[in-house]
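STRUCTURE:
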């Protein structure tokens, strides 16, 4: 047992040291291009809080920081989470005027945020199925003609009402499929912003700028980017109304005063430039489908133990990296995942093998029962962890340990 443990710790030390060198690199030099920060504000609609939106837009204007506002043209009247047919609510005149004034002052970019921000689900008889996976979507699985109609009509509404050209698309709940990408490219959209998950067509001409962090994580993301060996590091900050205590006193994470402080801090950083999504798509090199493919780490981060960042300070979670840095980061994460969960499986194997040899194996009936129960427990654990297709590191760790234990009983 001791011999195996010493080899395991040696392996993990080599992985951590080598991986840290591969992903950490040298700190950014002051002469390099500035770090790009984009703020993306989702869910502006007929039903959203106009007073809060007025305060948020005023805060960005005071700090002279641009903002991309993701607007829903015809918000579902009843509930975004009800897939049944609903009336779509148009933007009222005061909301249109608020955005027009911001556009006139050069403070914002308007992006199309779906059409009605209403979930779609398969229907059997008169009942709708639950969403497939953890997240809702307005577009996943929807036929191409319907997606095209929603996207084109939504853009036409916003361009007519706001007098602005719309070239950026932000899917509701960050949910989309390859059909969505194909429709957007054919319709002339240039910029796509969702999350670091989801399908990608490597031939797509779209520029991908996914969300990388939340509003209260901006400062830590900037510090990560300053340590990253990525000359064109990008930070895309996503926030919603419900993130503010003025909207939800219990669930809100920050208030308007904290927003002012964050924006003031960003404005004082000489190595930062704040742009809209469309501006960043023009200013930052590449940002194509291949770079998104290698940065698409949301699921991988979920199964990577959180101590990775605390121990070795890399790779940066809150940063969208250039192609070379993203490749190094993904390779390192896979090495860590394989090494850690391989070590857990080995530990489970050794524990089970030792216990089986000295206590269970002499009792044949007990040995048979132990093997059967262990296999059933492993199956149940796998089904539970992957039930919503969103596994996290603790569940994967339990599966690795249980799988090793099962192997040790045979």
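SEQUENCE:
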């Amino acid at each position: 047992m001791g011999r195996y443990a010493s080899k395991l710790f040696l392996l993990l030390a080599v992985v951590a040291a080598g991986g840290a060198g591969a992903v950490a690199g040298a700190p950014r030099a002051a002469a390099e291009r500035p770090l790009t920060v984009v703020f993306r504000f989702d869910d502006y609609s007929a039903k959203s809080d106009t007073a809060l939106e007025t305060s948020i837009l005023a805060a960005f204007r005071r700090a002279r920081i641009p903002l991309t506002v993701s607007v829903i043209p015809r918000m579902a009247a009843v509930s975004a989470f009800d897939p049944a047919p609903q009336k779509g609510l148009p933007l009222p005149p005061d909301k249109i005027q608020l955005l027009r004034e911001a556009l006139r002052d050069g403070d914002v970019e308007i992006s199309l945020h779906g059409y009605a921000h209403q979930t779609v689900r398969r229907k059997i008889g008169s009942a709708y199925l639950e969403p497939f996976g953890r997240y809702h979507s307005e577009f996943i699985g929807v036929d191409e003609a319907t997606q095209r109609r929603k996207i084109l009509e939504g853009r036409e509404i916003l361009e007519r009402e706001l007098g602005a050209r719309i070239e950026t698309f932000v899917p509701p709940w960050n949910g989309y499929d390859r059909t969505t990408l194909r429709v957007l490219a054919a319709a002339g959209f240039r910029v796509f912003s969702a999350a670091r998950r989801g399908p990608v067509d490597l031939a797509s001409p779209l520029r991908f700028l996914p969300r990388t962090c939340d509003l209260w994580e901006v400062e830590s993301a900037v510090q990560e980017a300053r340590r990253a060996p990525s000359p064109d590091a990008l930070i895309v900050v996503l926030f919603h109304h419900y993130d503010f205590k003025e909207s939800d006193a219990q669930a809100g994470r920050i208030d308007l005063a904290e927003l002012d402080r964050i924006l003031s801090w960003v404005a004082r950083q000489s190595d930062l430039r704040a742009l809209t999504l469309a501006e960043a798509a023009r200013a930052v090199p590449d940002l194509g489908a291949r770079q998104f493919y290698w940065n698409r780490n949301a699921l991988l981060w979920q199964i990577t133990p959180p101590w990775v960042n605390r121990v070795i300070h890399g790779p940066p979670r809150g940063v969208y990296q250039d192609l070379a840095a993203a490749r190094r980061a993904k390779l390192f994460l896979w090495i860590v995942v394989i090494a850690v969960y391989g070590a857990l499986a080995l530990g489970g194997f050794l524990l089970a093998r030792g216990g089986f040899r000295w206590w269970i194996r002499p009792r044949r009936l007990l040995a048979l029962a132990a093997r059967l129960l262990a296999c059933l427990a492993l199956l149940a654990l796998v089904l539970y962890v992957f039930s919503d297709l969103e596994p996290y590191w603790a569940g994967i760790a339990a599966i690795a340990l249980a799988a090793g234990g099962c192997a040790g009983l045979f």
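REMARK: DSSP finds 14 helices and 13 strands in the chain.
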